[in-house]
Amino acid sequence: MIVRRDGSGVRAARIVETEAYLGQDDPSAHAFRGRTTRTAPLWGPPGTIYVYFIYGMHHCLNFAVEREGTAGCVLIRGAEPLAGLAPGAATGPGRLCRALAIDTALSGRHLFDADRALYLREGRPARRIGVSTRVGIRQAADWPLRFFDADSAAVSPIARPRRTPPCPRGGRLPS
User: Fold this and answer.
1) What global pTM score does this model have?
2) Max alpha carbon distance in the chain (Å)?
């Protein structure tokens, strides 16, 4: 569960859709071309927040997940509203950020910061986890790195494959 606390109060949602980005070995990852001022949070300790602005209109929320100094993150693609959000308000990464008032001002902060503006709590696990290729990318588009609650109506309305596509490089993702 993701919780946002700000001047508007507290909003919460159960994360139901994510995508993994494998750092500098992943041609679709923001870290692929190296560290910049914008992408520096990707090299932070696990739980570092990375927010970017895309298409001149949407923010996207990511959490660093590798050890400090190694880039790798998880994009939060969708969530089921639990408190303070309308139904469907967090379906898709842009809507999720808009509903939770997340923008680049949070980038570089940490999920365990003392002010607790954005943090995670344990939530109800999915009964069935779906796996598919990532959405809206061109490079490494066939890698099965999108994970979602197969029973949730809050998952992005993108065709769900009947079978999991093969992993690249002989069944192994890049290390």
Assistant:
1) 0.88
2) 50
Question: Quick one: CA dihedral 168, 169, 170, 175, positive or negative?
Answer: negative
Side chain identity at 96, as an amino acid letter? L
How far is the C-alpha of 137 from the C-alpha of 161, rounded, in Å? 17
- Over residues 90-117, the pLDDT tens digits come to 999 999 999 999 999 999 999 998 888 9
* Angstrom distances, CA of residue 81 to CA of 22, 103, 125: 28, 19, 15
**How far is residue 61's CA from residue 50's CA, in Å, rounded to a whole number?**
6
User: In this structure, are residues 18 and 79 in contact, taking their beta carbons and an 8 Å threshold?
Assistant: no
20's CB contacts (< 8 A; 6+ apart) are: 65, 72, 73, 74, 75, 145, 147
Angle at 54 between CA 2 and CA 77, to 5 degrees: 30
Distances (CA, A) of 25 to 29, 70, 159: 8, 11, 27
Q: How far apart, in whole angstroms, are the C-alpha atoms of residue 143 and residue 92? A: 20
Model confidence pLDDT, tens digit, residues 119-163: 999 999 999 999 999 998 999 999 999 999 999 999 987 755 444
